[in-house]
Amino acid sequence: MKPAAAVWRLGILSAVTIALFILLANAITQPVAPNVRAYTAEFTDASGLYAGADVRVRGVRVGKVQSVELKRRNGQSVAAVALTLERRFGIVPATRLAIKYQSLTGSRYVDVVNPSESYKDAELVRNVSTAMTQPSFDVTALFNGLQPVLATLSPDDINAFVAHAVDFLSGNGGGLAPMLDSIRTLTKFVSDREQVVATVMRNLSTVADAMGGQSPHMIQILEWINRPLDAALSVIKEFRKTALNPDYMSAAERLLENIGFPSTGNHGDHFVMQPPGAPATDQVTNLDEGLDRAINNLDDFISAIKLVPVMWDNIGPPPHASAPLPCSHGHFQLPEQMDILLNGQRVVLCKH
């Protein structure tokens, strides 16, 4: 055999082998069902979605994106996405299409939510409008207002936070716990934690509005969390003013003194734990002694309250206007048939 012919045969064999390997790899990684139906869906934002992307139902690939084009509809620009879907699934009016993150590198896919498997041809929606679609979102929206916090974090922490948030909002991953753990990492070294958490909640709410999966539940959770946070943040400065206000502190000091804490010790710089009976100094407050006095005063007050019903029962009804006043030591017993009259009024003699 001539060397030139052998080289040609080797080259042809190598090319055929490479082509077959590519076809086999594509068939394994991205199998395409032969029985598919074409649809067109309109999105207000299709960022990151390209031709060849997956179309999935409950995480399983059932079609492909054919093309993504920009078109005008009712005076606004929309992204017209041509896609295919296996015929066993049908897009009906109750179906929703959402563009979701496939990975943090930016690749995305179309998720078909609530498709019908028992449909009639008349029920199919071949041209899906924006009312039935959820657009893509910019992952950087999660970090609006958090630039000072992110400057203290490592890239791994930031990537973990984004991954957990995207997984939860997309309906994947381990639920809410990993995302909350990432929020705890964000606020670990921050003094104003309330403001950071409120900012993260607002950003997540904005992102969740444009996503499917767990978004309806997430939006409700964020509303519940935001309600007390917003209320606390609106008056948090007032708490600080009150804590530093001399009028408030002097009133609190008088209240502590009346409860039972030693007056001299309340002017100390700090509290200490000492056995009851240890003298208070100008520098410290004997916390044990103060608590002991406060508890005793409280016990005395409760004991006094308990005596109120007894004293009330011993108080008789008020006498009539013409009735004589009662004697504290009893009446002086006069002989029978003997009365003392003064100006025609009967006089009662009391014991001394």
UniProtKB/TrEMBL annotation:
Which InterPro entries does its entry note? Mce/MlaD (IPR003399), Mce_C (IPR024516), MlaD_Phospholipid_Transporter (IPR052336)
Q: Which GO terms describe its biological process?
A: biological process involved in interaction with host
Supply the name of the protein: Mammalian cell entry protein
Domain named Mce/MlaD is located at 38-113
PANTHER family (UniProt xref): INTERMEMBRANE PHOSPHOLIPID TRANSPORT SYSTEM BINDING PROTEIN MLAD-RELATED, MCE-FAMILY PROTEIN MCE1B
Q: Which residues form the Mammalian cell entry C-terminal domain?
A: 131-223
Which Pfam families does the entry mention?
Answer: Mce4_CUP1, MlaD
The UniProt entry's GO CC annotations, sorted and at most eight, read: extracellular region
